[in-house]
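// run 5 | inverse folding | seed 20
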């Protein structure tokens, strides 16, 4: 009975799932120059490699389901956007776009085994940004060299492959030949003109994400229970990232981050030096016994990379390994050059031990990681909850009093990074809730109860209202009350006077009623702040003063 009720609930949540047609998609269905729209009232079945050909565009409506048919090698199914093609897949919190296996009934959260992987291929984006191989153009792994649409690379670092937002990619990673499995989401030389935000890869048989060069900038990425690495980059990747989240299975998963530089040659330029803020990487478990959890992060082949305000925890092996060769190209050279940076990070909960010489057994790595100038800390992050089963106990937000609320550095004011007052991928708001498989399948703790517990009245008011905060001025906690005459998706956000978002208090669907939200500004400087309520087409703004 409970299972039947859940299925009915999912159909109410995603009404397009209850009706519509199954539409078979083959490679010749999207021709050069076509402008194709996939609508949410249908389910699209991929058969084999489906290319969004050069000069073609594929638009996918919010709430659309795309399923990959089973098969390996030449029969593997995947959606591939080659150079010159574009994808516009923009879901929403309430209506995500889902790529999944043919066998998956997305209205039933109990139909797929928790260890299901490799049931179809994945999504591949190919662009014209730089890579650092001698040829400057590569052929993405798994696609025959005779297929010109499998090429990636060029000279345009601002190239765009389109937009992907609120997209969940599930149960992929089939073998596409020579023992190669498809990553959940592959970026081949994708440029920074592409928008990638709020993406989930769950239960992939290979890496969650892999970058082959390029400059694409990404936010809010989830790599959950994938069989190989959480995040993998190669061939001179130089993008930016913020709010990256990894959680590994207790029995599968290699590195949380596998970071390689050059291939042919290994000293190829540009070097791989991505810049990442606010990552939370959770391994297989300190005591899991997963032998593949050898190094939390590995850096090789001249790879650089910079992590700030990030958390690395609950991993079976040691924390960080930087390749150090007696001769030839290695990543120790990048550390010496300042191209490897770990600053304002927290490391804790490693099977090798939590002493510095256990987490970082290489002397030169340990020296860098414990340098006081880097402000790294080796303390319990005090997360709300870590769980790898669908018991509703996964909550990667920091508890009150957690060290994650302190010790962060300011992000660059470059128009991409979002200023936040915490270390790790999550603050008080769980941005993974609602649109992800982690949420829909019951892994995540429901954070919405915090807002519902602060519901002042279930009686629908007559009008929308955003009240003046109280007390005002305040130090450091204030209450913001608001009223909704109708239900809908509500956002309550705090900005500084430069327009930078400093706190997200509410971002979820609420019923009609009166509510209150508390903002603790203990980690913010004195000054005037703007708070804004958005629900549907309605927008309300007020000022408040923090006085310490």
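// decoded
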């Amino acid at each position: 009975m409970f299972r039947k009720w859940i299925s009915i609930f999912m159909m109410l949540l995603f009404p397009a799932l209850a009706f519509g047609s199954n539409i078979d998609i083959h490679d010749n269905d999207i021709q050069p120059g076509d402008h194709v729209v996939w609508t949410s009232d249908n389910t699209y079945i991929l058969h084999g490699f489906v290319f969004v050909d050069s000069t073609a565009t594929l638009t996918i409506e919010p709430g659309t389901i795309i399923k990959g048919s089973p098969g390996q090698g030449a029969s593997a199914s995947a959606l591939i956007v080659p150079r010159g093609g574009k994808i516009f897949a923009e879901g929403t919190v309430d209506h995500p776009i889902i790529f999944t296996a043919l066998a998956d009934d997305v209205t039933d959260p109990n139909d797929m085994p928790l260890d299901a992987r490799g049931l179809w291929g994945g999504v591949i984006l190919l662009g014209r940004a730089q890579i650092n191989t001698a040829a400057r153009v590569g052929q993405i792994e798994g696609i025959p060299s005779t297929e010109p649409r499998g090429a990636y690379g060029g000279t345009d670092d601002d190239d765009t492959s389109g937009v992907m937002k609120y997209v969940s990619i599930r149960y992929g990673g089939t073998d596409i030949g020579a023992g190669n499995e498809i990553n959940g989401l592959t970026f081949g030389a994708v440029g920074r003109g592409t928008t990638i935000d709020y993406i989930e890869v769950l239960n992939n048989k290979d890496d969650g994400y892999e970058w082959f060069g390029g400059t694409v900038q990404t936010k809010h990425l989830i790599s959950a229970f994938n069989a190989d690495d959480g995040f993998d980059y190669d061939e001179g990747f130089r993008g930016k990232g913020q709010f990256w989240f990894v959680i590994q299975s207790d029995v599968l998963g290699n590195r949380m981050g596998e970071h390689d530089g050059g291939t042919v040659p290994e000293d190829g330029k540009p070097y791989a030096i991505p810049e990442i803020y606010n990552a939370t990487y959770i391994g297989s478990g300190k005591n899991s016994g997963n032998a593949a959890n050898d190094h939390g992060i590995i850096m090789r082949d001249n790879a650089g990379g910079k992590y700030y305000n990030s958390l690395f925890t609950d991993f079976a092996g040691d924390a960080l390994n930087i390749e150090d060769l007696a001769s030839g190209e290695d990543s120790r050279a990048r550390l010496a050059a300042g191209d490897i940076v770990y600053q304002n990070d927290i490391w804790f909960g490693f099977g090798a031990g939590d002493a510095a010489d256990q987490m970082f057994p290489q002397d030169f790595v340990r020296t860098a990681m414990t340098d006081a100038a880097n402000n790294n800390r080796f303390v319990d992050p005090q997360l709300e909850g870590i769980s790898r089963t669908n018991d509703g106990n996964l909550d990667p937000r920091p508890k009150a009093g957690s060290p994650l609320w302190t010790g962060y550095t300011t992000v660059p004011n470059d128009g991409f990074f979002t200023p936040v007052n915490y270390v790790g991928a999550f603050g008080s708001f769980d941005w993974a809730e609602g649109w992800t498989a982690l949420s829909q399948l019951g892994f995540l703790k429901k954070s919405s109860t915090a807002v519902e517990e602060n519901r002042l009245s279930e009686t629908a008011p007559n009008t929308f209202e955003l009240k003046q905060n109280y007390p005002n001025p305040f130090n450091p906690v204030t209450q913001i009350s608001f009223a909704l005459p109708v239900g809908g998706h509500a956002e309550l956000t705090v900005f500084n006077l430069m327009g930078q978002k400093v706190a997200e208090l509410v971002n979820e669907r609420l019923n009609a009623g009166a509510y209150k939200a508390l903002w603790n500004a203990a980690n913010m400087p004195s000054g005037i702040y703007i708070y804004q309520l958005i629900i549907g087409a309605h927008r309300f703004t007020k000022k408040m003063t923090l006085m310490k």
